[in-house]
Structure prediction request, 248 residues.
Amino acid sequence: MSVAVGYAPGVGAQQVGGDRWRDVDAARGPSELLDEEARAADRELDGAPAGVILEWALERFGGGLVVTSSFQDCVLVDLAVAARPDIRVVFLDTGFHFPETIAYLRRIERRYGLDLQIVESGLAPDEHPCGTPRCCELRKVEPLARVLEDYEAWVTGLKRVDTPERLEAPVVAYDPVKGVVKVNPIASWTEDDVEDYVVARDLPRHPLNSLGYFSIGCAPTTRPVEQGENPRDARWSGTDKSECGLHL
Ligand code: SF4
Prediction:
């Protein structure tokens, strides 16, 4: 699939990466140009296979691309490594993950020889513990923001079926708050698509799947999925919270 969005509209053949801010259209700032480029890419790529979306992102951003994974499964990692074996993968370690998640992460790291960066908040467990107002912000949102300062684009495993708030999630979008282009290659996937991919690729499963956990984040706010539930219903159950803030 050919996607002619590597160059910003309005600036001829001047690439909006690397020398991004040189000779740009004087009437518009760099973020506006990236926003236009991301919108064009989204129009072209929505509905394309995840691998094609990743190939576009790699061609466009090269080493300026980073993948984040919560390691509830390894689908996104498998797709990303297939596109580029040495792609950088980041895990945000809040200090409250299940030991099984850390063990699974290490297993996946070994399996793929991952270029894995584990990012910690630096907080002690009793500083802003789970459930306090700033915990997600200090243990996830701010550490991610620091990571993204070094990158131009961020690949996530976000899916539209996750929550009502994600129903309209684009495949490619410029995030003006984080200052990066956000790429969601499996945005259109359903839970069945994920399962089919895991089976087809014979991927290792998170050890807690066998106990009914499928959407897996921090241990204090994750429970097993009950019959008929959306997996995300098992996160922050009993609260009015459904997002930790990474995707807001
Ligand atoms: S889910 Fe709980 S422990 Fe994890 S970052 Fe958010 S508030 Fe903190």
User: Anything to note?
Assistant: The chain has one domain: 14-212. DSSP finds six helices and six strands in the chain. The first strand starts at residue 65 and ends at 68.
